[in-house]
Design brief:
Blueprint lengths: L19 H13 L10 H22 L4 H20 L11 H20 L8 H24 L3 H18 L6 H26 L12 H22 L25 H9 L6 E6 L7 E6 L1 E3 L3 E3 L7 E2 L2 E2 L12 E8 L4 E3 L2 E2 L1 E6 L5 E4 L4 E8 L4 E6 L5 H5 L20 H10 L6 H13 L6 E2 L11 H9 L1 E2 L1 H14 L4 E7 L3 E3 L5 E4 L3 E9 L3 E5 L17 E2 L5 E2 L8 E2 L24 H5 L3 H26 L10 H24 L3 H33 L4 H15 L10 H11 L4 H19 L9 H15 L4 H5 L2 H4 L18
Parallel strand pairs: 14-15, 17-23
Antiparallel strand pairs: 1-7, 1-18, 2-9, 2-16, 3-4, 5-11, 6-10, 7-13, 8-12, 10-13, 11-12, 16-19, 17-18, 19-20, 21-22
InterPro entries: Bact_TGase-like, Papain-like_cys_pep_sf, TgpA_N, Transglutaminase-like
Protein name: Transglutaminase-like enzyme, putative cysteine protease
GO molecular function: peptidase activity
Length: 824
């Protein structure tokens, strides 16, 4: 009988009241704060918190019903889908159950989020689509961590998944993540390991009825291996925001905060899709509105877009610069001062035909063939000055320019892979043109004319089963500067015009005192440049911009009857008053409305201050009391206070109530209906939680083998009997009550033997002159509980609404001086 104290074989851990799942949830939430380095705002973190709590509660409740781990994980994923449906669709069954229509809507939202992720520049705006993607990703992480830490009993392996959560924003952000995110993540993970270590220590001593305390080495190794594979796959596949920090495996690196990197089109999309505009340049000395060129793209890749082509070369960019192709050295130069503000890139933007540059940076190079100034490493440049020729030839001069098939490098003529439909369309558009300029003008007019139904929108939806260029020019006809410039440049090459795509900025807006122009991320733009012998690269902008930021060069303006040139598009200059943040406001949004009106209204309103203050105070108090409670239960601090009955009865309900109020207030930031549902669910689950806490306290008192161990064991058995609808009259003796318990619940022989041992321990503790707890008491109690579960299982209603909590009764015990009461 030497193994009498070992736990019963079929006994399972009390995961519902164990601290492990809750600390695991806290670890996931703390790790999620690392995303603050790549996502603006904080509302997304509130949503993540609500989702993590829901997933953890679901897992804890289902494990309490002894559901198998795979089904628990499936149920948690279903709860995640329900929350996504409630938060991001209006087509769910009863507004939250994901039906076919709701799943389709969720697919559309996630598709939009993927497009924003692929084109975003960190930190991205926390749009509803981005929030949906983050909630889904972190929700799946929470399910995986919960499964690893609780069901698999391998919390150390969950560290790999949490590390992946940190790796994603760390690889995307240009700056270091906030230090406090690492502190929170490390502290929460250390607490998870400490709680699990305490649990394993007690199981090793035979004081917990846990069947998972041993034999976990192989499973933990297997789970850890799987987690490592998942972490690597997610880490390599999810880091796709902008062009920064992509893990090795494909794609271009570079790019940066508000800057154009090696993948110019990607950074262009990122700046245009940025939630809030950022100032990138102050320009002084610019006498007229014109485009600022940062880089040029020469190679067209079918169904993918434009790339740089041959690597840039050239000479050091200092002082006088060699002339570019077509530049005959004529024209008046203008001195322009450019002050970078929030610009980190490989490229140094310029205007017109640049002749000279003065910069304190000595590692830039000038490629006269491509017309760009660049550096081998990404950097934040100092202020610099250029001398540039801004004047342009007349329309007649361009019409008289000779047509030369080899005027520039052959790469500017290639259009391999273009479908015949596009070739035929290009030839029809320029039909009747007798010179290169008229061909270019007809192509520009084709995209700008209202009769062709092209529409400017930042959000594009094309047919993924068709060639992207063909679909744009013949079917969808919806896009922004990237699509328009790409399409016209290809069509220009089709009709024999050497062309390239230029990436840079429009003219921006004038400052309040007109002393300089402000260029922001909202001014990011792409246009077409076509080469004319003896004149160089001329600008043609096919994008139908109607917000006043477009620039029409003189040679494309129509001549009015009086002889004055009238621009075909407005090029007005708007002044902006300095704001408190120092940022200039864009002149208008893409749809023609005022820039401020284009901002999400929810951000302008925001929650009332009292709501945020109350939420902060409640969460702070809940966190402090929870930390005190956990440290006391782990024995890190003295538990003298917890040994007092009134303290236990007040502290634990207070912690639970504060967390419930905190979750309700946090959910109210999203929806008061959601808050009401969560609070109602918390109230309904309160009896179950209270019973779980009491059970945990009883079992820990028994495991400690202290003076009150026997009384705690008897109190737990009486509560188990009451929960099963068989209360024991207080007038009965211990042995009479034991016989009633064995008879009412049909205990088997193992249960009866355990009950005899419990009764013997109780009587010795009560009546012995020198009471010492029986080392076999934990095993005996586990045997009785196992027999109760086997022969008198609890119904779901009895689990949710335990009678020992709702209708407590006095246990039949002997009132003796030796008896020490056990709280709760």
């Amino acid at each position: 009988m030497g193994n009498r104290s070992a736990p019963a074989r079929g006994t399972e851990p009390e995961w519902f009241t164990s601290a492990t799942p809750w600390i695991a949830a806290l670890a996931v939430l703390c790790a999620s704060t690392a995303l603050s380095g790549v996502i603006e705002g904080d509302l997304w973190l509130v949503r993540i918190g609500v989702v993590i709590v829901a997933i953890t509660v679901t897992g804890a409740f289902l494990r309490a019903t002894r559901l198998t781990p795979p089904l628990v994980a499936i149920a948690q994923v279903f709860v995640l889908l329900c929350l996504l449906t409630a938060l991001h669709t209006r087509s769910g069954i009863f507004l939250f159950i994901p039906g076919p229509e709701a799943l389709g809507d969720l697919g559309d939202v996630l598709a939009e989020s993927v497009a924003q992720v692929q084109t975003g520049v960190p930190p991205v705006h926390a749009s509803p689509a981005i929030q949906a993607l983050v909630v889904l990703a972190i929700g799946l992480v929470a399910v995986l961590v919960d499964t690893l830490a609780v069901a698999a009993g391998a919390p150390a392996a969950s560290g790999l998944v949490l590390l992946c959560v940190f790796a994603v924003p760390a690889s995307l952000a240009d700056e270091m993540l906030p230090f406090w995110t690492f502190v929170l993540g490390a502290a929460a993970f250390a607490m998870l390991l400490a709680v699990d270590g305490q649990h394993r220590h007690e199981a090793w001593r035979g004081r917990l009825g846990s069947g998972s305390a041993s034999g976990s080495g192989g499973s933990a190794t297997t789970v850890a291996s799987i987690a490592m594979v998942i972490a690597l796959v997610v880490g390599a596949g999810f880091t796709v925001v902008g062009t920064v920090g992509r893990l090795p495996g494909g794609g271009s690196g570079g790019g940066g905060k508000g800057g154009i990197g090696l993948s110019e089109m990607t950074s262009l999309r990122g700046m245009l899709n940025r939630g809030r505009p950022a100032e990138v340049f102050y320009v002084r000395g610019l006498p007229e509105q014109t485009y600022m060129r940062a880089s040029t793209l020469a190679q067209y890749v079918p169904n993918k877009g434009w790339e740089r082509g041959t690597p840039p070369g050239g000479q050091p960019a200092r002082g006088e610069l060699p002339p570019q192709a077509g530049d005959r050295g004529e024209g008046k130069t203008t001195r322009i001062n450019i002050e970078p503000r929030d610009w980190r890139s490989f490229w140094l933007p310029t205007y017109g035909a640049v002749r000279r540059i003065d910069t304190p940076d000595d590692d830039y190079r000038f490629d006269a063939k491509k017309g760009v100034i660049y550096t081998e490493r990404e950097r934040e440049p100092a202020s610099y000055e250029i001398d540039a020729v801004l004047s342009t030839p007349t329309k007649q001069a361009l019409r008289l320019a000779p047509s030369q098939k080899n005027a520039v490098e052959s790469e500017y003529y290639k259009f391999d892979g273009v479908e015949q439909e596009v070739v035929d369309l290009a030839n029809r558009v320029v039909e009747g043109a007798t010179n290169d300029f008229d061909k270019a003008a007809k192509l520009t007019e084709f995209f700008n004319s209202p009769t062709t139904d092209f529409k400017y929108e930042l959000k594009t939806q094309g047919d993924v089963n068709r060639d992207a260029l063909t679909d744009f020019v013949l079917r969808s006809k919806v896009g922004y500067c990237e699509q328009f410039a790409s399409a016209m440049a290809v069509m220009a090459r089709v009709v024999g015009l050497p062309s390239r795509v230029a990436i840079g900025f429009t003219a921006g807006v004038a400052a309040a005192d007109n002393a300089y122009r402000v260029i922001s991320t909202d001014d990011a733009h792409a246009w077409v440049e076509i080469f004319f012998p003896n004149h160089g690269w001329m600008t043609f902008d096919p994008t139908p911009i109607s917000d006043g930021r477009g620039v029409v060069p003189p040679y494309l303006r129509e001549t009015a009857p009086g002889g004055e040139e009238v621009p075909t598009a407005e090029t007005t200059t708007e002044s902006v008053a300095p704001s408190t943040s120092g940022s200039a406001q864009a002149s208008a949004s893409p749809d023609g409305e005022d820039g401020d009106q284009g901002l999400p209204q929810a951000q302008a309103e925001g929650p009332p201050p009292w709501h945020l203050w109350t939420l902060g105070v409640v969460l702070l108090l809940a966190a402090l009391l929870s930390a005190f409670l956990v440290l006391a239960l782990l024995g890190v601090i003295g538990a003298g206070l917890l040994g007092v009955s009134w303290a236990r009865k007040l502290l634990i309900p207070a912690v639970a109530g504060l967390w419930l109020i905190g979750v309700g207030l946090a959910a109210a930031l999203l929806s008061w209906w959601l808050a009401a549902v969560l609070v109602l669910a918390g109230v309904v689950l309160t009896p179950l939680l209270v019973r779980g806490v009491r059970r945990r306290n009883h079992l820990h008192a028994v495991a400690a083998l202290g003076p009150g161990a026997a009384t705690a064991a008897w109190s737990e058995l009486i509560a188990e009997s009451i929960d099963r609808g068989a209360p024991v009259p207080a007038a009965e003796t211990i042995r009479t009550a034991a016989r009633r318990l064995a008879r009412e619940h049909n205990l088997d022989e193992a249960g009866k033997d355990g009950l005899r041992s419990v009764i013997g321990s109780i009587e010795r503790s009560w009546y012995s002159a020198n009471p010492v707890a029986d080392p076999g008491l934990p095993g005996a109690l586990a045997a009785v509980r196992q027999s109760l579960k086997k022969n008198a299982p609890l119904s779901l209603r009895a689990r949710l609404f335990p009678k020992s909590v709702l209708k407590p009764a006095t246990a039949p015990v002997a009132e003796t001086p030796e008896r020490e009461p056990v709280g709760v």
